[in-house]
Amino acid sequence: MSDTVNITLNPAETLRILSEKIKNENYLISQLKQEISNVIVGQNFMIDRLLIALLADGHILLEGVPGLAKTLAIKTLSEAIDVAYSRIQFTPDLLPADVTGTLIYSQKTENFTVRKGPVFSNFVLADEINRAPAKVQSALLEAMQERQITIGDETFILPDPFLVLATMNPIDQEGTYPLPEAQVDRFMLKVFLDYPTKEEEKLIIRSNVRPEGLSKVKKVLSADDIVRSRALVREIYLDEKIEQYIVDIVYATRTPQKYGLGHLESLIDFGCSPRASINLALAAKAFAFLQNRAFVIPEDVRAIAADVMRHRIGLTYEAEAENISANDIVSKIINKVEVP
User: Fold this and answer.
1) Cα(229)–Cα(178) distance, rounded to whole angstroms?
2) Helix, strand or coil for residue 67?
């Protein structure tokens, strides 16, 4: 009883113990990052965001031109963790049953049996997700939010951990379908990828043309390791002032005039949902975890805010006419909202 009281009265000691646990777990995450980096040259920003999504138990959407190793990075991540992995190539003729599964009638038994689809995996790569119509994209909604799939009158729980990693090509719009807002909102992060530097591109050439080919990926983590690390991320301390900071940032997208940002009102069609606040808090905790910290600081929130919020802000025609992006709006908000 005295130990419990002592820990309760001494938060500094609690944070110290948590910091030690985080350092021990972070060693495994560092190994995972190294394995991915052995295959993916550069793109450290993308790798960090993949790890944040993994640790914060959130889905991630990668957007970038072809050839930036989006699919390879996700495949490499799954190969380095001892979990089930499936890839769904989204195409215009894809059906919801091709994703979730369906009921198959057996003449021998005269019964319907369930044939599970590729979504029944730990890691699901939804490649070029905007190539399939809305009814197929919507087939993922239940899986992403509730971690379950209903086929016929049966509901099946998806494995843990469960992570949807989707890719999009922003330039080729022929034969593509815009993602519904409800679908986009299910992604914790939306990450824009840029071209590698000249030095990185030289290393990419070398790693792809050498006789032995790309490095082989070793499995360095198990599903239990991921679940344990996620539990630690949840324990990271989030001060009430940081909570208020997160709420202010999100509310500034809904009522910008209350934060001295009245000029943004005509540019924002709709602001971020409460899911943005939840995901910003979780992603900030995961970011702090990667920095070996047992508590969240404002810089963690600022670092991850654009990735959490950019796909949750609706832009008006005026914003598009003025070539103002959601990134620009998030940047203005971050620079204006008072830091605790």
Assistant:
1) 34
2) coil
Considering the domain architecture, whether residues 313 and 204 belong to the same structural domain is answered as no
Instruction: Kindly state the helix (H) or strand (E) to which residue 102 belongs, with its residue range.
Output: strand 101-106
How many angstroms separate the CA atoms of 329 and 335, rounded?
10
How many Å apart are CA 109 and CA 151, to the nearest integer?
19
Tens digits of residue pLDDT in 61-102: 988 877 777 888 888 888 899 888 899 998 888 888 899 988
Q: Give domain status of residue 10, yes or no.
A: no
- Residues 76, 159, single domain; the answer is yes
Q: Report the distance separating Cα 173 and Cα 130, nearest Å.
A: 9
Residue whose entry in the numeric block shows the structure tokens 């909102």:
185
> Which range marks the domain in which residue 54 is found?
42-213+220-235
**Residue 204 falls inside a structural domain:** yes
Identify whether 108 is part of a domain.
yes
Cα(167)–Cα(131) distance, integer angstroms? 10
Rounded Cα distance between 195 and 17, Å, is: 41
* 258/230 same-domain check: no
Q: What is the pTM of this model?
A: 0.87
Q: How do residues 216-226 score in pLDDT, each as one tens digit? A: 888 889 889 99
Residues 140, 164: contact at Cβ < 8 Å?
yes
Please report where in the chains the tokens 């699919």 appear, as a residue: 71
DSSP class of residue 153?
A: T
Domain count, the chain: 2
